[in-house]
Amino acid sequence: MAKKKSFQIGNALSDGLEETMTAAHSYSGELRVDVIPIKRIETDPANPRSLMIDMNDVKSGVLKSDPNYERKIAEIESLQSIATSIREQGIINPVVVYKQGERYRLIAGERRTLASLLAGKTDIQAKILDEKPTALKVSILQWIENIERSDLTLWERLRNLEKISLAYAEKRSMLPEDITVTELSNLIGCSKPHAMNYKALLEADNVLKQFIADNEIRSIEKAAFLAGIASEDLQAQAITACIQGASLKKLKLMVEQSKSIKSIKHRLPTRSQGRQASSVSLGATKNIKVAKMILDSVLTNNSLSHIAGHFKGIDLNNYKTMSDTFKQLIKKLEELHA
Q1: Are strands 103-108 and 41-42 parallel, antiparallel or unpaired?
Q2: CA distances to 15, 197, 206, 279 from 10, in Å
Q3: Per-position b or e across 251-279, b if 16+ CB within 10 A of its CB
Q4: What is the pLDDT, as a whole number, of residue 164?
Q5: Per residue, what are the HEC states of 117-163?
Q6: Which of 29, 92, 225, 260 is most buried as measured by Cβ atoms within 10 A of its Cβ?
Q7: d(CA 46, CA 324)
Q8: Nearest Cα to 287, choosing from 177, 188, 198?
Q9: Span 129-160, pLDDT tens digits
Q10: For the whole model, what pTM was predicted?
């Protein structure tokens, strides 16, 4: 008599099912999937993004008088292949949103949303959180979503990582710079060597960060190495070599050789003239007293007395609150000078 066959689930499948059930339990009563009108979606102003276009640019078209006309047109063109895929196959991976009144705030999926509009769609499939998640959870969800993009720039990754670090530090009542490599590795799910590179970038000076923002330095390994060069003059030389195409090995050799020869004063390279800067970086400070001094100087300006009332009663001893206050202040000033 033939032996009766038994059915068994392989280890990999078993682990996968266990993870799926755990995830389902974690989001029980919190996450649902539905189809929602695109017109009720709004982008998250705090989401690290490099796109200059918005929904209105896609729906109504970009005016030739727009100072960013060429860049916006290029961005719309870059979404055409996604729009074609959505037109033919629909959305494969739903966007992620949370309910905010009668509208939905986008956590992840801005390109898919804009491409859906471009494809002529009025609705989109979305994973919906019924309540606003914590700042840490939002930033990690955005990291997970964005890190899979093939066109994600190093600057976008760095800005996203800064958000995660600030949210994590606030939750733990610590300074962002005190986050360890191990904690960073666990937070974003990467190896410790990779986390070491990211931590080096988080602690890099604004000069190096500006070259990353301008997309002139794109390699995380090279950027992390440059961040670790203590001498400003030597770092300037290495940045120039990096922009000119030097390999990581060559950069390391340059630094090694500099130990035995006298450094020559070297100016940082001028910015590429191909694309003009479209935003101003106001820098960053770890000294909250400096931030308070700047904020107080602006709000005591007689010409701004009518907006000073918006910022009364704010706890300015909290890094997160102080950062949010500066964002609100800049928004108010931009409205005044629109």
Answers
A1: parallel
A2: 9, 37, 51, 53
A3: beebbeebeeeeeeeeebeeeeeeeeeee
A4: 87
A5: HHCCCCEEEEEEECCCCCHHHHHHHHHHHHHCCCCCCHHHHHHHHHH
A6: 225
A7: 9
A8: 177
A9: 877 888 788 777 777 766 666 567 888 888 88
A10: 0.53
CB atoms inside a 10 Å sphere around CB 148: 8
As a whole number of angstroms, the distance between CA 70 and CA 23 comes to 43
Give residue 50's pLDDT. Answer: 66
**Burial of 157 (C-beta count, 10 Å sphere; 0-12/13-18/19+):** buried
**Distance spanning both ends of the chain, measured CA to CA:** 86
- Can you tell me whether residue 42 is helix, strand or coil? strand
Determine the pLDDT at residue 301: 72
Distance of CA 297 to the CA centre of its chain: 29
Q: How many CA atoms lie within 13 A of 314 on its CB side?
A: 21
Dihedral angle at the C-alpha atoms of 14, 19, 22, 23, nearest 10 degrees? -140
Per-residue burial over 283-298, b if 16 or more Cβ lie within 10 Å, else e, is eeeeeeeebeeebeee
DSSP E strands in the chain: the ranges are 31-37, 41-42, 95-100, 103-108, 123-129
Distance of CA 24 to the CA centre of its chain: 27
Across the chain, mean pLDDT equals: 78
**Gap between the Cα atoms of 139 and 161, Å rounded:** 8
The dihedral built from the CA positions of residue 250, 221, 281 and 150, taken in this order, carries a sign that is: positive
Euclidean distance between CA atoms 326 and 210, whole angstroms? 20
| Count, residues in the chain | 338
Measuring CA to CA, which residue among 200, 54, 203, 180 is closest to residue 114? 54
Asked if residues 51 and 73 have their Cβ atoms less than 8 Å apart, the reply is no
**66 vs 52: CA distance, rounded Å:** 11
pLDDT at 18 over 90: no
**Could you give the 3-state DSSP secondary structure of residue 292?**
helix
- Gap between the Cα atoms of 274 and 130, Å rounded: 44
